[in-house]
Amino acid sequence: MDVSALARTRTHHPEAIAEAAARRPRRPLLGDSGRLMIVAADHPARGALGVGGRKLAMANRADLLQRLCLALSRPGVDGVLATADILDDLLLLGALDNKIVMGSMNRGGIQGAAFELDDRFTGHRPEDIERFGFDAGKLLLRIDYSDPGSLTTLESTARAIDAMAERRLPVFVEPFISRRTPEGRLKNDLSAEAVTRSIAIASGLGGTSAYTWLKVPVTEHPDDMAEVMATSTLPAVLLGGEIGGTPADQEAAYEKWRGALRLPTVQGLVVGRSLLYPADGDVTAAVDTAVGLL
After folding, report:
1. All residues at 6 or more sequence positions from 12 whose CB lies less than 8 Å from its CB, including other chains
2. pLDDT computed for residue 243 by the predictor
3. What are the φ and ψ backbone dihedral angles of 142, each rounded to 5 degrees?
4. What is the CA angle 136-201-171, rounded to 5?
């Protein structure tokens, strides 16, 4: 990974990024399999750099780009979800040809900040996704019933859904019911009831749900997923989330995904750290195993 070459291009030819986007060959959102396998890498823009016990695992950009390029090269991987800085690098590297490109839209809720739930849209705008010829957007919707600021996030999310629908661009909404622990740490509630409520709320946002997809976690008790996913008819993908730092944890995550992928509205996976930084270090094997689940 020649970081110096990327830096030279950014320094002397910044227009090369838009040019690479303009000539990028595109494909339909769903391929012949009718399923989606997307690798997520939008964590760093929230300051969320940790993986397992490694607090700065995602901080080395060259290493992250190498892992992403490897993952994108594997059969069955449809595309990537990332922020502009990472997508710009991947465009310059030619790694996004015939791939689904999802722009990450709201990154204002910095991990661990007092304003973490004030999750403003500081990433891709709908017009950016359209201008660069990307294929979809993604936004995170965390709702804390005790925080009045969640209403602002709900309203801005609804308007973003409207703006994407006007452009006929899919938007993947990742909803959670969240709350702060006594220590002040924000925690997502993965109980069946909480995930059900978050899906119901997210499904009703905006003036139309025609272009809305859901990006949902597997509940703490995977057997609850069938009833939880019956809450909405919107197409959905499963997210990876934190899965632990051992090969046994990784295998347990695969089993959870395998069961939920059989449900009628679930169309695929959007997984990041657990595939890019697997416990055993084998990115190829982790990605290929996840693809095999589809």
Report:
1. none
2. 66
3. -105, 125
4. 5
Return the residue matching tokens 């899919």. 170
pLDDT over 70 at 197, yes or no: yes
Question: What confidence category does residue 292 fall into, taking pLDDT thresholds of 50, 70 and 90?
Answer: very high
Task: Answer whether 263's CB lies under 8 Å from 214's CB.
Answer: no
Q: How far apart are alpha carbons 195 and 34 in whole angstroms?
A: 25
How far, in Å, CA of 253 to CA of 66, rounded?
24
The token pair at 165 is: 């629908």
- The string of DSSP letters for 52-95 reads TTBTTTT--HHHHHHHHHHHHHSTT--EEEE-HHHHHHHHHTTT
d(CA 37, CA 44): 21
pLDDT at 248: 82
CA quadruple 231, 237, 239, 240: dihedral positive or negative?
A: positive
Chain-centre distance for alpha carbon 189: 18
User: What confidence tens digit (pLDDT) does each residue in 70-111 have?
Assistant: 999 999 999 999 999 999 999 999 999 999 999 999 999 999
pLDDT score at 244: 64
Q: How far apart are CA 66 and CA 41, in angstroms?
A: 12
**Measured between alpha carbons, how far is 114 from 185 in angstroms, rounded to an integer?**
9
- Would you place residue 238 in the very low, low, confident or very high pLDDT band (cuts 50, 70, 90)? very high
286-289 contacts, C-beta under 8 A, 24 or more apart: 286/250, 287/39, 287/70, 287/71, 287/74, 287/77, 288/74, 288/75, 288/76, 289/254
| Among the listed residues 97, 98, 101, 117, the one whose alpha carbon sits nearest the alpha carbon of residue 109 | 117
Q: Provide the token pair at 28.
A: 């339909």
| Tokens, residue 104 | 């990450």
Q: How far is CA 173 from CA 78, 155, 160, 226, in A?
A: 19, 13, 10, 19
Mean pLDDT in residue range 257-285 = 94
Instruction: Give the pLDDT of residue 199.
Output: 98
